[in-house]
């Protein structure tokens, strides 16, 4: 007597495979956040934590990828954060294939490109010591933030990147008009 084996149906195999994939994903992600899971899946990527006021995806992209034009890729890769209002502590995933620089983003780079950069108010001195009642007293000078110490070896590289980034931002603004 000849034994005949029945092949399992395609639907049965597909159902078992879906179940296995679901179980693997549940086990892999149980007890860990999306960021932790992502870090384990992409160890060569950079996970930048927003630290300074004024950081944008364009600034982060310019620093790590060498061009602010990659901000849309970062936006698409980080759908869980509000790219229009980055908050201190937000974590931005930067895919390894885009990375040109691995050193952490510096506050000097951020403040030099940030629109939120505050400038101190300068008050002119009065020629005489006498203040008339009708004259308004000038507003006090807003203190500038303390200077940030930058390693001299990296200062020239930062200045070059700032210059290139400003030029690229201007070109992209002119192209969009």
DSSP summary: helix tally: 6
Evaluate the radius of gyration.
Answer: 27 Å
Q: Quick one: overall form? A: elongated
What is the first-to-last residue Cα distance? Answer: 82 Å
What's the story with the biggest beta sheet? 2 strands, antiparallel
Helix content: 40-55%
**Tally of DSSP β-strands:** 2
What structural category do the secondary elements indicate? mainly alpha
Write the element-wise H/E pattern from the N-terminal end onward: HHEHHEHH
Strand order of the largest sheet: 1-2
| Unreliable sequence segments | 117-124, 134-141
Q: Give the rounded overall mean pLDDT.
A: 76
Percentage of residues in DSSP E strands: under 5%
Task: Summarize the structure in short.
The chain is mainly α and 177 residues long. The chain has helices at 10-29, 34-41, 57-65, 71-77, 107-113, 152-176; strands spanning 46-49, 91-94.
